[in-house]
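User: Thanks for the earlier help. One more: Peptide/nickel transport system substrate-binding protein. Can you show the sequence and predicted structure together?

Assistant: Of course, both are below.
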Amino acid sequence: MKHFNFVRRRLLTAALSGTLAFVGIGSACAQGAAEKGGTLIMVVQPEPPTLASYQSTAGPVGQVASKIFEGLLEYDFNLKPIPGLAKSWAVSPDGKTVTFSLQEGVKFHDGKPFTSEDVKFSILDVLKKVHPRGVNTFRAVTDVKTPDPLTAIFELSEPAPYMLMAMSSYESPMLPKHVYGNGNITNHPRANTPVGTGPFKFVEWQRGQVIRLDRNKDYHKAGLPHLDRIVARFIADGGTRAATLETGEAQIAGFSAVLPVDVKRLKTLPHLGVTSKGYEMQSPLIMLDFNTTKPPFDNVKVRQAVAYAIDRKFVLDNIWFGFGRPSTGPISSNFKANGLYTADVMNYDVPNRIEIANKLLDEAGKPRGANGVRFEIVHDLTPYGDEWRRFGEYVQQQLGKLGIKVTLRYEDVPTWLRRIYTNYDFQLNSGWIQTLADPAIGVHRLFHSNMIKPGTVFVNDSRWSSKETDELMTQAAVEVNPEKRAALYHEFQKKVVEASPVAFMLELDFTTVYNKKLHNFLVSPLGLYSSFDQAWLAK
């Protein structure tokens, strides 16, 4: 295992004004009154491509930006909305009007007041236009009325019950109109020097090393935040990430930034804790995405063959070390509780998977050549860590059994995002996606025809389009009867799994490793996507 270079650490500490409070190894303090001060070192993997969380939903972006921006609502562990920048809200009987009453005395980091005009701007001019999920989440919003500075009235063309589940700081950040209303929002000069209302202010970004956020002394919640500073650190090597937590040089790493094999070891150390709590609103799925508009994956039988080839239990046990479950389709089994999930879909996890896959490829007119190869493809790997490389190697091996020769490609995050979601210059792509608190928010964007949007990340990259499933999603989005809504989503799952625009692999359980001297960081089902306004470090 590589260890952190202590000379470099000293230089980095000096660069951050000599005020970093590294937490040493020790036993956890008993939870008591929150202590003021200190710097939280948070490992974020990989480095965010941007801090424009209003435009990119890449996982690392939200971990940092949610400390800077705030949303109208936040959520409790029962997945119920609670006040955020809105102190109260009311929905009209017909579901077509939602009135938000805003908190008083809220200021942006530049001292300007937060008002209903900022809400209107954020929803209509930003999130509805450029946010990968906001395009869908707020599609029914026709206007936002602002009768006074502390009242924002959303007018909808149809009921949108899912909308209230998408108003957090992570999902729908509120922006200052006086800053982001000037210039092109898709390439704004303040994208990476953001201004919000959150508990921490952006200070600096040392590319390849750290992002520094300092305490907002004018934060609208009295007495908060407790921390003086949050520093997000970027460490490419998985062993080094684990070492920084082990030695106390960092206090928290989430979204499985610590490799599963290291989690097994670190969880035995008395000063460290491991939890999978705080991901309840994420429901992440691992998938293989096909470019369905180009050969060979424009053929459903070829896509199905690949879906059959992968042994999901092997992938779970040997690459993600049991942190998850095999996936059956586009809706996570987390939705069993409200009836939206069904396992009654086409099953690709069968003992004779390779035999079936070879037969499908023969039927698809893809015979083996004299060298045993049917065709060659390039497999793009999500650039989020070593486990994705290992997964790619396994896919390469399994498809080789079918006579598919696979070349692996691993690029930096911005290049990968541009290749997959702007240029569509790929054949097979691996990745994980968050399906969030409602399918209308997190699932529709992956399969609806209206979510084929070049340049918008984490939407329908397969460019698969079906009028039938589009209609099922459209009906389910506005259906208020739970049983009817569930029936629509059950039919949707069956049709998508059979068409296989993506091959569903795993329902992923993310882990967070943390120093037990860190308290009150886990106060929301959004976990590391929450503001950390209540987090504190025992000295």
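User: Great, one quick takeaway?

Assistant: The CA atoms of residues 479 and 485 lie 6 Å apart.
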